[in-house]
Amino acid sequence: MNVLITGGAGFIGSHLSENLKNDKRIKKIYIIDNLTSGSKKNISGILKDKKIKFIKQDIKNINKIKNYFKNVSVVFHLAGLVDVANSINNPLKYLKNNLLGTLNILECMKLYNVKKIIFAASSSCYGNAGKNSINESQKVETESPYAYSKNSAEELIKLFSKINKTNFVSLRLFNVYGQRAKMTGNYASVISIFLRQKKNNKPLTIVGDGNQSRDFVHVLDVVEAFKKASFSKNKNKVYNIGTGKSETINKIAKIFGGKKKFIPKRAGDLRFSKAKISKVKKDLKWIPKKKLNKSIQELIKNLC
Ligand SMILES: NC(=O)c1ccc[n+]([C@@H]2O[C@H](COP(=O)([O-])OP(=O)(O)OC[C@H]3O[C@@H](n4cnc5c(N)ncnc54)[C@H](O)[C@@H]3O)[C@@H](O)[C@H]2O)c1
User: Fold this and answer.
1) Do 224 and 159 fall within a single domain?
2) What is the pLDDT of residues 49-95, one digit of tens each?
3) What stretches of 84-125 adopt beta strand conformation (E)?
4) Is 185 within a domain?
């Protein structure tokens, strides 16, 4: 089958593109990315493969992207602006990109009768949900224009699936880490920031008291979830993609070792986040395999 990946030159999208390139069931992969935060370097290993067609385009421009949806069976929709703090100052930009961009994808699917979309949704829809693990029926409580744009995009996908009889799987990703995650800018996740600081022999900056916790899920596990979702018979479902465990930032700093420096909290930062993943385990037989401690050690080793 042919597939189309939006945001395929980004952190998660590039790993997904690489993985799908090696999947014999897939004949052609269209990657649409405007390279705002992604980079051709992320997919340099596969760009020349004849299975891959890279299209530098913006999903906001429907006329420039629509024709690539012809003969596509599954769309993996990962394109998005991802900086929570930046979204607070630029809400319109985030809504245009993440929500109206998604509307364009859905219209293109309708035009060429594409039946399935796998969406990179976000656990940010749960807001500050407390210390307990969160299941998919937890009340949505967005705390930033970013979270709002991602959740509204998910709602739009559900609506189109009803109207046009198409299928979706929405994967609410928790904190994804791994090779190629952005090390700079507001959006860089704590593990990437610590990697950069370790590389530059700088103290590790801990936001607030460091007792906030996150559910860190490895990018290669996330890619497996996308793949399983695309081949599964389960349809019109929302799944949490995390590990079901959460670690404090202080614990992550301890794994890295070295000097620490505490800095003030940022707008939009959440206190706790932990996924309940029984639904995805049962339906998709997906289990996160990567161990946090070992994976961080590997990332540190790769810095040298
Ligand atoms: N990384 C995480 O922890 C995490 C958590 C929850 C959800 N997500 C979602 O997963 C997706 C991928 O995130 P990522 O961490 O790989 O970020 P990323 O910034 O590396 O990837 C996003 C990609 O989308 C592209 N893009 C953005 N706007 C576009 C547009 N208008 N047209 C075409 N391409 C566009 C960017 O250039 C980039 O390559 C995002 O939608 C994000 O909201 C990520």
Assistant:
1) yes
2) 999 999 999 999 999 999 999 999 999 999 999 998 899 999 999 99
3) 116-122
4) no
